[in-house]
Fold:
Amino acid sequence: MLRAEAGTAGARAEGRRAGLLREAAAELAGAYGAAPADSRDRAEAALELAACRRELWQLTADRDQLTEALVTLDGEVPPWPAVTAVARDWRPGPEGPEDTAPGDGGSGDAAGAYGRTRDGGSGHGPGGADTGVPAAGPEPSPASRDRVPWEVTAHRARLLLRGRVLLDLRRPGAAEPVLREACAVLLRERVPDAVRGPALLDLARAMRRAGAEDAETRRAFGRALEAAGDDPDLLLPCLAALAAFHDAAGETGEADAAYERAALLAPADGPVRVQLLTAWGESLLRRASAGDGAGVVDRAEYVLREALKSLPARSAHRGRLQGLVGSALAQRFRHLGFLPDLFESRHLLGQAVRAATDAAVRAEVWLQLGRVRLEGWYHAGAPVLVEALQAYENAEREAEAAHGGDPGSVTAARARHGCGAVLALMGRTGAARGAFQAALEQWQRLVGALREVDWADVELTRRAERRPPPTDARSLPEPDWRETAPPWWPWSEEWADTRELDRS
Structure:
């Protein structure tokens, strides 16, 4: 009851969700501890407790909740060894399991009474030695050929929830075999596609993130899409995940088509459409940030503005979207040279650093703002360079706050490079050399820690350290200016690793 109340509009509006979920977790933990070890009551309490802890993580970003949920779902902890043994031995009769009442452990719901999550199960938007018969609950075996034993339903509910928690913890390699077994159980149960679809999609996500072969991952997405059919609620998350897969594979046309179709399916005034438009806009912005990105920059700005318009005024994501729109305008100025775009970009980026609630986002926005201020100094006669220097220094400070100093981050290395470039333009040769050397040291630490870096960025810093400072920076010809100024860096991938959660 407490968990259900936490999902109501009143609890959201009054800020009571976290408190209610903590109370629910405490009560469920008591019920879990009091239930007999191998009983159905203990299995149900374990699933509800793990699902409740996952909701708390989604609300508070407390990773300990996920860790504790995994302990509850550990296959070696009672009641799971006995439940798993029964479930793995079970096979349906020749005609398959018939429809059963919910209390009989029927297969009509992916989680049944066992820990359904508020997001419909998918989280977005994952052998036992004791083969004895449980002392409590319905007789598990021999199973009626027309019935699904409760152990089977509980087993696959545990697998699905454990797989999704592992995905939340960014452990896709561990999640994949768990979700694969869950999908196999669902296939044996011959459940409706509406139940299998989300599980197949989670498996496809895990395979993609674990680095499975593209062909195998494509087949997994194909199975999820087939299960989704024409149901918008099932099709929408499939299309969004498929778009991200195509985007990562460099298949931009397919990615755009999937994003566009998903955005048309999403409710016009809901958060899902905002999330889709934001993801699509980020994809377009990455492409616009390339040297040949002039052809997509208008679409990137349009899609991101649509996302910003649809966002609630007090949303925690407003700063991030303002920063993305400002970055798109900066890229359009870079490609087309229209000064009003530069001025609006500077205005939006300034708003974004004040509105952003996440240090990683602020770091990226400050990095963009430093480049925009520098361009304003060169093209529009802005009076001082110190504001550009301050922006790069702020970017470095926020990056360290978000990602730590050891081994550091790509954003911090870029910010140090930016500081060096501005100091060189100011004629402070020694300070500029020190900033470039600090950037190179940051790149080396990242490489030593096996972090992914763009070697073109590293080489740019090396060249900048060796380059003599210009004698009259403001009168540099355009080609020399482009060589001297820092690059128009896109947003790094690191900021997305600090997941922004719904804390409303």
